[in-house]
Amino acid sequence: MDSTEKRKTRNEWTETEMDSLEKRKPRKEWTEVETDSLIKNEKEIYSEEKGEIRNERIAIIRLAIRLLLMVLFFGYIMIWIIMPVNTYGLLYLPDIYAKGQPGANFLIYSLPILSIGVLGCLYLDLGQADAGHDNERWHARMEIAGLSLGHVGNVCLSFLFFPVTRSSSILRLIGLTSESSIKYHIWLGHITLAIFSAHSLYFILFWASTNQISEMLEWAEVGISNLAGEIAMVFGLVMWVTTFPRIRRKFFELFFYTHYLYIFLMVFFIFHVGFSYFCISLPGFYLFLVDRFLRFLQSQRKVRLVSARILPCKAVELNFSKCLGLKYNPTSIMFINMPGISKLQWHPFTVTSNYNTDPDRLSVLIKCEGSWTQSLYLKLLQPVPLERLEVSVEGPYGPASTNFSKYDTLVMISGGSGITPFFSIIRELLFNASTRSCWTKQIVLITTFKNSVDLTMLDLLLPVSGNYDIEELPLRIEAYVTREKEPTPDDQKLCQTLWFLPSETDAPVSANLGSTNSWLWHGAIISSSFISFLLFFGILSRYFIYPDGHNSGSRYSYTEKQALCMFFVCLSVAMTATLTFIWNEKQNVRKMQEVHNLDEPAPKGFTKPGLWLYNSKRDLESFPHQSIFKNTTVHYGERPNFRKLLRVHEGSSMGVLVSGPERMRQEVAAICASSEADNIHFESMSFSF
Questions:
Q1: What is the three-class DSSP state of 587?
Q2: What gap in Å lies between CA 388 and CA 339, rounded to an integer?
Q3: How far is CA 381 from CA 41, 542, 616, in A?
């Protein structure tokens, strides 16, 4: 063949040229060398054509990056231009700094230049690939980089569910609770979805640049299923959008309901990567699945609500009947659901009772500040009193251990409703004092309220039942009312108590099978359920998936096998947890009868069951709770000077507990950190569920 023929592919030859070649030598008589030469020539020409198309696409991508670089640079320059203008300083800057000054400064001044630097690297790399005709290697690097992003995202996913596993022995072993580690779940959630978003976007660009955009719709029979990953990413993005503070606070129910999309996210993620690869993330998700199903079982029981105390400051104390064997630590949390208000919403509240001083009661204090709590408050004050209020609970969940009595001086600082965790601590210290096991020489409660009517919450410091005298406890209370300079008539109003008539099916609050009372049961459920899963899947694989041995063809498709794996995981957890739960319920039957006998009788005059609302008028001299006000000093129209108050108690081992607004906690933390004394032990209580 001459040089002209070599420069053309076979499809481009004219009929005359084909005839000429055939006449010169029939195709069947060509030698092997001539045939290989022709094939090689066609491949070279096709590669050149494909390279030209790829170079055109790279040029388009580079143009888009260049335009984006120009926009970022122009916007960055405009910030410096308008910065001296009053409109920027008075109109825009306050709104920007309202979200946090360090973060706002980073986004405004640092992020544009950093983005320009990163995009510039990508722009230059694309130029080198174009100039060097090294597209295949460059695309291989792109694919490896995209896969690496997916691997990193999977590592983050493997830790994502640990913080939200409320009954987690792993968190307890390192001294954490789910409530205190929820911030790690938030950080991990943002990081995981950001990495997975980058992973998805990277592959979309990769497919677009290599003319493989049809790969987006591929659901592979074996291996990675791209379409399943994209569906999982859509669910993840919907969840992610609703987690940002502005949307979450304004549309909390939208955030709450869309968070259940994690179920579909995990299902399609497993379809995307396969169950074998998902085993990297399986441990954390498996423990969460066990915990979530146990919480579901506990929430199906309706608990016995005995009474509700309604305070003038629009706070409500709910008193539940509980099993005698239920133990919990101070500052524990309990989740409450009331179908009469919302069937899906669960809200956490601090347990104010103590299992030592209140052996048959469990109480929570609810400050009516949101829509759900306002609905509860109005329901309790409706003209026709309620006979029964249907309630389900999860918990209580608490810290691994508390030892507040080890300090010579214990200072508790609270703001507003942040006082609630200190109720259970003071009751614990009161019990220890009555048994001569409390070594704390001085206890100081520094609490701030906006209005004087909120002082009525101090009436809940001591338990209703039992013979406990506040004089046994070296307690001093410094109460500050910041918005009023003198008492108002509202703080003289008396509490109201509403008694309920529970249903025969209502049960006392009992321990969840993952709490302090039942760690052995929880461990048994985890181990037995996982062993059951291995047995189920082993039998299925041996006799149904590969009935004739591992070398035979499978009866099930790849997707069906992933679905079967998920099904058997759920079946194993549900079966073992349900059986254990039923067995544990039978053990609690005896205790339930004991609690029925110990239920506090209704006051005199209680003639209509559940329909009696009364003012709890008390003889101030004979009522022992009033002695607590002898130890209380109220300061009107001022805020506490924490530095001065803490300096008074220096010189001995001092524990400082703070519960309240973030600004207060940061202020006290800074004072404790700057103190020259090395005997101050600081602990912040942040309830961020």
A1: helix
A2: 12
A3: 90, 64, 15
pLDDT of residue 618: 38
Is the N-terminal amide bond of 396 cis, ω within 30° of 0? yes
Burial (CB < 10 A; 0-12, 13-18, 19+), residue 267, is middle
Give burial (CB, 10 Å; 0-12/13-18/19+) of 289.
Answer: buried
Strand arrangement of the beta sheet that strand 392-397 belongs to: 347-350, 333-337, 392-397
What pLDDT is stored for residue 266 in this prediction? Answer: 92
pLDDT of amino acid 3: 43
Contact partners, residue 391, CB within 8 Å, separation at least 6: 302, 303, 305, 318, 320, 336, 337, 338
The percent of the chain in helix, strand and coil, each rounded to the nearest 5, is: 55, 15, 30
Q: Do 542 and 577 meet the contact criterion of CB atoms below 8 Å apart?
A: no
Q: Cα dist. 385→340, 378, 499, 615, 617 in Å?
A: 14, 11, 9, 14, 19
CA dihedral in degrees (638, 643, 646, 648; nearest 10)? -90
The β-bridge partners of 447 are 414, 479
Tokens of 528: 């037995």
User: Residue 513, class by beta-carbon neighbours within 10 Å (0-12 exposed, 13-18 middle, 19+ buried)?
Assistant: buried
Evaluate whether 192 touches 155 at the Cβ level (below 8 Å).
Answer: no
Q: Provide the whole-model pTM.
A: 0.71
pLDDT in the model for residue 52 = 65
Instruction: Please tell me the distance from the alpha carbon of residue 488 to that of residue 634, in angstroms, as a whole number.
Output: 13
316, 334, 361, 424, 542 from 353: Cα distances, Å: 14, 12, 7, 5, 55
Backbone angles phi, psi at 658, to 5 degrees: -125, 135
* Predicted pLDDT at 234: 92
Residues in the chain where the model's pLDDT stays below 70: 1-55, 82-111, 114, 117, 120, 123, 125-140, 400-402, 436-440, 464-471, 489-494, 514-517, 544-556, 588-629, 648-651, 675-678, 686-689
Residue 15 token pair = 């009929």
pLDDT confidence of residue 112:
72
DSSP 16-72: HHHHHHHHHS-GGG--HHHHHHHHHHHHHHHHHHHHHHHHHHHHHHHHHHHHHHHHH
For residue 483, count CB atoms less than 10 angstroms from its CB and return exposed for 0-12, middle for 13-18, buried for 19 or more.
exposed
Nearest CA among 408, 439, 332 for reference residue 655: 408
Alpha-carbon distances of 485 from 395, 417, 450, 600, rounded to whole Å: 41, 21, 11, 40
What is the radius of gyration, based on Cα positions, of the chain?
34
